[in-house]
Amino acid sequence: MDLIIIAVATYKRPNMLRSALKSLNCLKVFLHYQAQIMVCDNDPKKSAKPIFDSMKEKLFLPSFYFSEANRGIVPARNKLLEEALKTGASYLAFFDDDETVHPDWLAELLNAAKKFQAQAVWGKTIYFLPPDHPDWLENRNFFGGDQPITGTQRRGASTNNVLIDLQFLNKHNIRFDKRFNDIGGSDSFLFREVRDHGGKVISSQEAITYEEIPSSRASEEWILRRAYKNAHTEFRRTLIRKGRFAAVLLASFYGVWLAVSYFFSQVLYPFKGYDFRIFNRRRKSKVKGLIHALKGRSHEEYSIIHGN
Questions:
Q1: Distances from the Cα of 61 to the Cαs of 25, 80, 91, in angstroms?
Q2: Which pTM was predicted?
């Protein structure tokens, strides 16, 4: 009987972690699979342990707690990956500590993996805006989460809602890269490595998680900061995978296209809403991210904790 590990990395978000774990009790039971829950606490003071201990007896699935003192998302993710490999599990399913899962979440991830013979399946996240959010946020999908039809092959994926073939990772010695620990993007880099080694990464519209956006992220500042980070990370991914010449060349073409698009779109400001202006300003933030990446400037994505 195949074993599936459900993995959650957490850092100082006790209430969210409690809700995330509680949602796992609603998962449907499988006839041909066993499942276990693993939580990795990235706080050296082990602040998540009391929450885990209070929930452990209430959880229907066997549950295990680990701590990782080395600060950063990469050590936490790799800790979960290594602990999962020790069990001999077939699959590792990640979701975030600020999310909850649909009862069919795991079943749909597994169904898609089997049906399309995929090594990774990236599910869909449905976002809920805070009550005090600005109206313009509703007019555009600034947070992502949408997925094309199930089975569509993707360039990469995110650990906010994903199923991974553990044995494929182990065979090719694929791990989360510590060079992305400060800025983020180690997950998308890992899934591109999966593709480089012949693996298939696909989408699933039916494997659903839910996330409530905190007020600290429902803002223009966060959206522009995220755009900056994405461009910075994309340059670093290309630099590592294809070398500096290719990274600089692609960044230059992309930066020019973004700059031209930004200036031409400004002409439309009198005829468009505020959401259009923010969407356009994202292009400017991406150019800034590319320039700083070219200069070797660092960026710490996970220095701020969003949520409680």
A1: 8, 17, 16
A2: 0.92
